[in-house]
Write a structure and sequence with these properties.
Elements: H1 4-52, H2 69-76, H3 82-94, H4 100-111, H5 115-132, H6 142-151, H7 153-160
Helix pairs in contact: 3-4, 3-5, 4-5, 5-6, 5-7
Length: about 170
Amino acid sequence: MKSTLPLIIALVFLVAACDDDTENANNTNNVNNTSNVNNTTATNNVNNTNNTTTTNNTNNVTVDACTSQADLDIINDPESDLSGLTTTCTTDCQANAGDEVCISECVAEGSGLSALCSTCYGDFGMCAIAYCILPCIDPSADSCTECTETNCRDGFTLCSGYDANAQ
């Protein structure tokens, strides 16, 4: 009987050890299942972030900026070369990272146009840089005129309130 007692004790420990392994395996599966739930939640969070990310673009468009009598007098002055001035200012400012403010200030200083009206010329210059850089390597080329007419004229007309083609 004494010899069977250690054997019984060993069997009890063996059975107990087997039960613990089964529970641990289940616990591991439960943890994995929990992780899967968390991963799903993380995915939903990413989707929620993407769904709630909105960009509110408010375009502050200047309209009719060149309709004051003082601006119209300069625009309609036959000795005024606003096209040439805008080209010069755009070229000069392009070397300084093509800044619209630079072009606008240059046009205002060179012509006497109001600061508000000059922003339309600055925008036109920036449009030429953005869309017509290659055709306007030679600003007097027909390809440059065609490109700026196609890409920039409507924006300029809206901004300035002045349509040079209608005059």
